[in-house]
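REQUEST FORM: STRUCTURE PREDICTION
Request ID: SP-0412
Submitted by: Lab K.M.
Chain count: 1
Length (residues): 408
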Amino acid sequence: MIIETRPLWSLASLNDESLPDSTPDAFTFDYVDISNVTEGHISSDLETYTFGDAPSRARRIARADDVIVSTVRTYLKAIARVEDTRDATVYSTGFAVLRPNRDLVDPRYISYVLSSSQVMDEIVATSVGVSYPAIQGTALHRIRVPYRARDVQAAIASYLDRETAEIDAVLAKMDLLRGALRGRASSVQTRAVFGLSAGQRHSAADAHSPLSGMPDHWDRTKFGYDFTESTERNGDDPPGPLLSISEYRGVELNTRTEGQQASLDVSKYRVVRPDQLAANMMWLNHGGLGVSSLTGYISPDYKAFWISDRFEPRYVHHLFRSSRYIDYFAAIASGVRPNAQRVTKTVLDATPVPLPPLDEQIRIADDLDVATARVDAMLAKVAALKSLLLERRAALITDVVTGRKEVA
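STATUS: Completed
RESULT:
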């Protein structure tokens, strides 16, 4: 079946509205950045800004049923249809905002068309740049997309609404399961690294006193006494892969830039060695620390620390990724924006740290390695199933909008 195609510019206008420079500094709005759009949905967990404090890229205006398409880091495939909201919302200039001509196109249909593999592959292929691929809004506007009669569009959109809603419901349950697994692992981890009994519970008050409740025979120290910053820079030759700190697993390969490393200027990047502690100073309150098992290089925003021989590195890894320390770092971090609060080196050095006997550290680390390995295995299964469901969702959309699957 041959499907007619039309250029996007004939079906939707581009970037119709934006905040003017004359906007009052006190104007308050929720801000949608590229990272807030995943799997065809806009996150409800948005940062709120006043115009005077907002990033300079917070300018785009989108209305209900407009479709936002990321024109930067296009490999992330950040596309979503905007729903009506009572709160003022502003979008990054990294999005192209497409406003469908309702006489010609159903907004739901054009949203599905743009998220189909056929169109997404063309957007990515048309993008320019290796480490930060981007497409000009005008180039996006020229892309040709499948076009059907208005009544067929409505039938396709209604069918996909029903089918994707079922898949999305399963994905939501999987996200809840993933959160529950992480929460359980974090609870076990926190009790173990602080020597808490089964009846002792972590509370918000512990954020300001992270060593409360630990065994009397344990010593205590401060971060600056036992963790020495490594000043080793990368130089010209990468010592290994680019590493980053993930939300749950700790130090691992930076998969987002894997295959793009040749284009990176890594001369100012820091080197991290096995058994060193890596720390993302702007992400400590989200678990931004971890002990590396690899030799590699890390962003200049990170720091790497040698660990004194009074500590078992695996115990250190579990310790600083516990919920108690995440809460502690959240309490002492400074900065205007919640997602960009930094812990300074001076404050980190003054952080109190438990110092159990070395043999106890090894026992705790052994037990937690086993417990977290079980959770990792379950999380990996959840992630694999979620990946299959997302592939199924994308394939269904593509098959329907390209006519390979007919809708009754």
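NOTES: The radius of gyration is 25 Å.
Reviewed by: T.R.
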